[in-house]
Specification:
By secondary structure, this protein is α+β, with helices and mostly antiparallel strands. The protein contains five helices and 13 strands. The chain is elongated, with a radius of gyration of 29 Å. It is found in: Cytoplasm, Cytosol.
């Protein structure tokens, strides 16, 4: 039993895990000398293999069920294909409303740099379900949101529900809260944690939903909400340009190429100034 525990710890498995038992059975088969001991070891190895195969089959069924659940979730969310682009000056009104726009008919917009909001569902005058668009390279990752609202009514209270988060674990469960700013108050501020809730929602197939309450206090302001403090591509480019203007001898900035959207891709080299001089000299020699 002592050897068993040592092997399990070396293998990185729990002593009762099927992987460690199979490893122990194989090692025991190699070190036993008598025929009876070998036969017992073979039986133990066979039992371990059976347990391993059973666990593999169980894991396969769990993965298959998980895939079906993800598929059902995507269908329930309206399909990722439905969230092709960001909402653009979308005014959300009660179903069937055909009159002129009123104050309090909130206008959502995510056509801003680093913006993300694909769909808005009207639940009531005070509540809206928001659907965020997935990552470009992985449609199952849905985390970031950043959008603006306007045409609000003073003292209007709302609840925004981000209903299609893909993560079960989030810092929102540990006290983090979204950030907000407005045209008259351009500095980002965190919402009070007591107004933010991260929970499983039975109305959305028990997926995790983040809800936060907010009260608008100025009708003429445009409010912006974000997952956390945005760091945009433009801000990065301005920062790199300011570094380049300082002519730092240990920093070199080069254009590596252009993105699909024709945005500059930078290569930064931070090193000993002597290495930069040596590399430039070597490049001139090769070109000459």
């Amino acid at each position: 039993m002592q050897l068993h525990g040592i092997i399990c710890r070396v293998a990185g498995r729990h002593p009762c895990g099927w992987g460690s038992c199979a490893l122990f059975a194989r090692l025991h088969l190699l070190v036993t000398s008598s025929h009876s001991s070998r036969a017992a070891a073979r039986r133990r190895l066979g039992n371990a293999r059976s347990a391993s195969e059973a666990c593999v089959r169980l894991y396969g069924r769990m993965m298959e069920e998980n895939s079906r659940e993800h598929l059902d979730t995507d269908n329930e969310m309206g399909g990722e294909d439905a969230l092709v682009g960001n909402v653009n000056k979308l005014m959300v009104t009660p179903p069937g409303y055909t009159g002129p726009p009123k104050k309090g008919h909130i206008v959502f917009d995510a056509c801003i740099e680093s913006g993300n909001l694909g769909r808005v569902d009207y639940i009531s005058e005070f509540e809206f379900d928001l659907f965020i668009r997935p990552d470009t390279c992985n449609p199952r990752f849905r985390v970031w949101f950043n959008f603006t609202v306007e045409n609000v009514r003073e003292t209007q209270r709302v609840i925004f529900n981000i209903v299609n988060f893909s993560k079960t674990k989030s810092l929102y469960r540990d006290g983090m809260s979204p950030v907000v700013k407005s045209t008259s108050r351009p500095k980002w501020q965190r919402l009070p944690a007591k107004n933010v809730y991260y929970y499983r929602c039975p109305d959305h197939r028990r997926n995790y939903v983040m809800s936060f309450a907010f009260c608008f206090d100025r009708e003429d302001d445009v409010y912006q909400f974000s997952y956390c403090y945005p760091y945009t591509y433009s801000r990065l480019q301005h920062y790199l340009a300011s570094l380049e203007r300082r002519n730092l001898d240990y920093l070199q900035r080069e254009q590596l190429g252009l993105s699909v959207q024709q945005r500059r891709l930078d290569l930064l080299t931070i090193t000993n100034p002597a290495f930069v001089i040596w590399r430039e000299t070597r490049n001139r020699e090769w070109q000459g």
